[in-house]
User: Fold these one by one.
Assistant:
Number 1:
Amino acid sequence: MSHRFMFMAASLLAFSTLAQSTLASAAPKYEEVAARYVTTTCAIPCDKPQNSSWYFWRGENRVEIRDGSSAVGEIWRRDGKGRLNFVYVEPARQRGIEYNATDLRIINHKRPWDRLASIISPAELKKLSPAGDAEVLGHKAQRYRGKMDQRTVEVVWVPDLQLATQVINTYPDHQVTTELESFLTQQDGVMATSDDQLAEYELVDFADLGDMETNASMAWLKQATAAPGHETHEH
């Protein structure tokens, strides 16, 4: 699983204070969300759909995504200046690889925060046309539809959560559907990785990855092929 996004921001120096104030007041507030999504991919006509489930946890400045087996995941964190850092994690083995903002820029793995936090960004949503109302698990929702590049896009958007609960991308030869399956509760027994838990993980800095792979005790790094930029350090 891979989920792929970009982050860019700019402002004129003369109006930086005003611009930052305006952006701060206009920035959406992200309520905490814990959910399970399913992504379905199939060729058209859709005879043999392939399904993959994944977990999604969101806080004001933190997003964690984990595959349905909890084998691998990714944690994105945003600091007070809007800079992102990223951790590739293997929760079952309590280990991972840390990337700072510079690392993400070098390997071109930057992501826009609003898309990470909302599945589809509000800017992308504005390119689509309203297509009616809906309801999703007790939340009022809005449908959108339109064209982007070479695909038709359909979205179900929950305004009070600032969250897409369904995104259908239809290409000429295949379709990819991502849909909210359920909100998680304590009874599901699946929790986001806490900072205390992450502090107990065996974490490697991405910048040190090449050197660490030669250490016999760190042989697992060579198998961490889902980690972004991994190919950069292959021998």
Note: The radius of gyration is 19 Å.
Number 2:
Amino acid sequence: MAGATQIDTIELKSTPVLAKVFAGAVASSRGRTGKAGLPDLKVRQTGVTIDVNALADYDHVCGFPLLNELPITYLHNLVFPLQATLFADKRYPFPLMGSVHLSNRLTQHRPVLLSEELTLETWAENARPHRAGVQVDVLSQAFVGSELVWEGLAVYLYRGQKIAGEVPAKVDTGDGVEGPGAIWRLPGDLGRRFSRVSGDVNPIHMSGLSAKAMGFPTAIAHGMWSQAAMVAALDARLPAAYVTEMEFRKPVNIPGTVTFVAHPGGQDGSWEMSLRNLKKGTELVRGSVRALS
């Protein structure tokens, strides 16, 4: 939160009920135009412990083994209620409903153990123009004591919103890795299944009918399910400390069939990944893993 002179902090005593938070965010969405700018506002929760049953359910939906170490994407799952609290606050200028998760970068400084107690923090910064609206960086951190163990940077797009500034030109980044891969058949209830373990009940993920009401032709998988499933497919090959980045390039329609492609990048534990439409070969999600030195 560079340049902030005073930061207001929302201290959560317990994990909020996301259905209530979403309902409040939806009810207050009308009239949020972004004109006031992002507030110097942080959400913090201390004393966070892991519910083993909730973790097991998450691992089952995403394909992780149940281990004594938390999946890197599960830390995002833990901070998501803080993000939702931030989005629902009346000082946050952009509407939650209809927002799109463009990309995600997660950093694991060391494995986080199931038994460790966490402090979580989330805030937003760097609102800037996008050709389809406004994009915002939502940053999150997890600490064990005073030790920073995990970081997240999620970029959200608020479609149809406007903000002062020059819209950056679209950059052609070429195509990602391709070739033979694992074929994944995604069921129509995948969005509902992931919503139950993540709390993200955005209508674009829940059913074709609710997705159409939000301007999408069909339901789409959560970006965080895609990232989790792609990382889970490499679980046994991941370094202890690493960064994984995902760019959600096109919607992953559900039901549907996709191909997961992963190529090793060398001896440093790095990987390049793609999730592609099986029939057309279109790249839907581009990802990478890079070991921290």
Note: The mean pLDDT is 90.
